[in-house]
Amino acid sequence: MKISLQWLREYVDVSSADEVAGWCNARGMEVEAVYTTGHDFDGVVIAEVRSAKPLEGSDHLSVCDVFDGASSHTVLCGAPNAAPGRFAWAKPGSRLPLGEVGSKAVRGVESAGMLVSKRELGLTDDHSGIWRLPDDAPLGALLHKAYPIRDEVVEIDVTANRPDLLSIVGVAREIAAATCRPLHKPSLSSEPIGGEAARRVNVAIEAPDLCPRYTGMIVGGLRVSPSPIWMQRRLEAVGLRSINNLVDITNYVLFECGQPLHAFDERFLAGSTIVVRKAAVGEVVTTLDEVDRVMAGDEVLICDAEKPVALGGVMGGANSLVGDDTTNVFIESAYFAPTSIRRTSTRLGLSTDSSYRFERGIDVDGVPWGLHRAASLMAELGGGRIVPGYIDVYPSVVERPEVRVRTTRVNHVLGTELTQVRVAELLRALELGVEPKDNDVLSVRVPGFRVDLVREIDMIEEVARCHGFENVVATLPPARSAPKPFTAVQRAQSIARDVLVGMGYSEALSLAMTSPDLLDRFHREPSRYVRVRNPLSVELSALRDSLLPTLCRGIAFNMARQQRDLAVFETRRTYHPTRSGELPVERLRVAAAACGRRIGEEWSQQAVDFDFFDLKGAVELLMERFRITERVGYFPISDDPVLVEGLAAEVRLDATSIGRVGRIRPAILAGLDIDSPVFAFEIDMSAIAEAGLPEAVYKPWSRFPGTTRDLALVMSLETAVGPLVEALLSHDPARIRGVEVFDVYQGAGLDASMKSVAVRLQIQSDEATLTAEEIEAVTSSALKMLSDCYGIKLR
Amino acid sequence: MIDDIRRIEDEAVRAVAEAADLEALDRLRVRFLGKKGELTLVLRGMKDVAAEDRPRFGAAVNEAKDRVEGLIEQRLAAMREEQQRKELESARVDVTLPGRKPARGHLSPLTIVYNEIVDIFRAMGFSVEDGPEVETDWYNFTALNFPPDHPARDAQQSLFVDDGILLRTHTSPVQIRVMERQAPPVRMICPGWVYRSDTLDASHSPMFSQVEGLLVDRRVTLGDLFGVLDEFVHRFFGSDMKTRYRPSFFPFTEPSAEVDVSCIICKGTGSLGGQTCRLCKGTGWKEILGSGLVDPNVFAAVGYDPEEWTGFAFGMGIERIAMFRYGVDEIRHFFEGDWRFVSQF
């Protein structure tokens, strides 16, 4: 909501825009901007165009004879509305937002300055023509001296609970209350209910639940013309465009007091009748923006004897508009039910200044005031005459609530020590009716414009606001409990971050929603991921069921920017659909991906590229840190849709798959414009957390010296080494304490189908120093087992 | 005999001085001091010495042995020193060459800020609670006093995945879930990801992260809210930071307040070297939090008696705080994973 300072000053005395901004912030209207609109233009004067003739040889320029009250000037003008009348004329040398006005010649005719549009003056973006001024505009006067051109604007954010602040009067009332200054509201002479007006137009409400109150007045003998400049400028300051005096007045009153109005040309009301009814399903209403709108059946329609003439509370109809030849106007001022208007506006995607206010709730008691205000402005500015009386259909009066407020409760909630008298004083300043019931309780009657005040807590908030948050003493509540420990999932996530960052992986945080196309690349069959029904774009319409696709896309993003050596991880949730109508399952995962060089080329070392074992090592280190190494195994997989066969392993915790590690298929990467190998893993951390995160348990080490024995084992190329290591470890756990694979060799000296694997056994006992014979026995027993079970021999 | 000793001694002194290396010295040690060394053999000739001369003779031999021994040790030490000096000389490096840095990963600045916020609130007794990111309308809106068809829902445009199931628009649903399963008092924060129907650009993101807090107890006041948030601001930003509480509106709190802190760039003055401060647009303040006392309707939804219990809730956007702290100009940097951004933290 934009507040024009000129306009605001009609209702309350304020010293400056900064003062207004300060009060707005302090009272709950967040200030978004403070600025000046319009300038004092030296050199722009009011002048009369005495004649405008086409410039010979030009299809759009006119030669105007311009008289400034003292002398005549020849001015060229390209505007379509150049014609006799009074206009704003920028003399040569005057400064406009676009620059300095010079004199220029076209086809031998020199133009003395220029006739200007509102846009050229920087007032609005209206460039449809030069700015026509009233015929009685003082000739030769400086424009800004003759009219209020310059204004200051305070733009505020009005919260959804305070529709009363969507008006100049509402803001003025709040500032008046804050500053204890009087609120000046224009006094209006009220017409009696009924009278000639009621005899001329018959109003019936058939849907009182949608429209509890409908009022109307008739103004006749009007002449449509431009609005006075002060009104134009005020409407422009609040962001509207001036149309003509009648339309402008309805907007002016809406912004002045928050009451939406609609003006019908009385000629178009068939049968001089207004019927307020619920729309029929499929009924079509053409709104004034010339759009045919199909009704769902719960909208409220304003109809005449034959047809709908307005979509109630949202927008007028195209068939009953005020036009240039309108003379008699029927003004509607009504109260529509907020929920109904909101549904209509949301469904049609049509939000107007009217619907915005109705859906938040307007002042049901203020409906006639807005009506009278508009009628009297029309009579005054449109040369019209009010048809005596007015129509007010209000079948069941909306009662205003009376709220009990306990002073003790106020202080209990706010931590203040306010007296009952002070509480009453603060509430009264807001025009609330306050009566003490006993020496604690106040009874508060709420006026119609404060739709947000219904409960005691609402009043307590008003007291806090008016007392001033800065006057509430900050205190610290005593803690009565200690925080709960972190959950296993929270701990697992934090551990994974620390481990991976320590290993050189950097954290990625991608949007959780991505394109189905991207996810599909990582699946073999059309998959069942959770989809957003109303996405902003298809690119953001699927929820991730894996972290790998977005990690890979992040790599692609960097590769496109010449960053090719990357190691990234993400630990976030993935989403997995369940049954329709139920929440999806969310699992915490960790995934990492790496490509390019693990060690860059340096003067002191060779470059090393990432490979499978870097990623597997990262997984192993994670498992070690989670202290579940013994329960985790790695198994080759051949049918993974994401990972290359022969470079892919499934990670199992006990017998359950908890993830995979390997090289991403080049075909997937090619689709993302990645041309180098990417290795990655993804692990379900929820599963790890569910398995528990064991604490470290101290084990005393052997007091006796240990030794090592190296064995070079020959086996077929296909033999998996992992199970052999496991077998060795479990063969004689009391004495074989560790198995290291320190070389894998194939080539000269070996059959082409064989490889040699060098393992180092760590042999040690807790009982005694092993003798050479005992050590020999351990090794030969291990070799026998390898030979018996796997057919593996020493090289 | 004494002359023999002198002669051998002189010869040994000369030879030790001339010894070229450690091996030569070793040989000299054997030659003069070994079991069959020259000085050792002289000592064996003791039997031929007159009894009265023997003490003097013995002393002379031992003196000579000590002297030779000492000289050998001296030479030895000098040679070792020289050898080490040469080794170190050949090990000289250009210390201005770059060092060998192990690979280092970087946490997202959001995680860094998140961890700090969590630490501060845990130190103040708040537990960390989680909840689903895909939520029901009840938890996300209705229980939080956003009635259906209420304009307050406009501020949180939602992404739906099913009828009445949406990506949570704030972490407040966790408050409801915790209060449903736990009797008061409650002292918790719920950090996490939230989703709104916004296009990703410099200042908007369809996903961002929040930390919300909830404290429910007997006699919790608005003053307590201000006290806890002041404490947080002072711990996170520094004790010289000022706070400003402005009345506002959130459906689930009443009274509600937005919280500004003094701008860290212009120190709350609004101007920087005569220019309007760009970060705070000249106001001297930066909004970082929304907060308020828990609305009685929220207590009603979870079965807490609002007469007995009062509480406050607050929420902050981690991106906004990280942008404020690190001077990050575009929110999308947090989510694009650009190495040039990530590697700065």
Q: Can you give a write-up of this model?
A:
The complex is a heterodimer of chains A (795) and B (345). Helix content of chain A is 26%, strand content 28%. The longest helix of chain A has 19 residues. Chain A is elongated and about 125 Å long. Chain A has 795 residues and is of the alpha+beta class. In chain A, helix 20 packs across helix 21. Chain A has 21 helices and 43 strands. In chain A, a hairpin with a 4-residue loop joins strand 20 and strand 21. The model of chain A has no long low-confidence stretch (mean pLDDT 93). Chain B is of the alpha+beta class. Chain B has twelve helices and twelve strands. In chain B, helix 5 packs across helix 10. Chain B has a seven-stranded mixed beta sheet, sandwiched between helices. Chain B has a three-stranded antiparallel beta sheet with strand order 2-4-3. A two-stranded antiparallel sheet of chain B has the order 9-10. Chain B is 41% helix and 21% strand. The N and C termini of chain B lie far apart (84 Å). The radius of gyration of chain B is 42 Å and the shape is rod-shaped. Chains A and B meet through helix 8, helix 11, helix 13, helix 14 and strand 29 of A and helix 5, strand 1, strand 2, strand 3 and strand 5 of B.
Q: Determine the number of helices of chain A (DSSP H or I, runs of at least 4 residues).
A: 21
Derived from helix and strand composition plus strand pairing, the structural class of chain B reads alpha+beta
Q: Roughly what percent helix of chain A? A: 25-40%
| Spans where pLDDT lies below 50 across 5 or more residues of chain A | none
Q: Helix fraction of chain B?
A: 40-55%
Mean pLDDT of chain A: 93
User: Which ranges of chain B are low-confidence, i.e. pLDDT below 50, for 5 or more consecutive residues?
Assistant: none
Shape of chain A: elongated
Class based on secondary structure composition and strand pairing of chain A? alpha+beta
- Strand percent estimate of chain B: 15-25%
| Alpha-carbon distance between the two ends of chain A | 87 Å
Count the strands of chain B? 12
Q: Could you tell me the radius of gyration of chain B in angstroms?
A: 42 Å
Strand order of the largest sheet of chain B: 1-5-6-12-11-8-7
Order of strands, widest sheet of chain A: 29-32-33-39-38-37-36
Oligomer: heterodimer
Work out the largest interface and the residue count of each chain: A-B, 94 and 88 residues
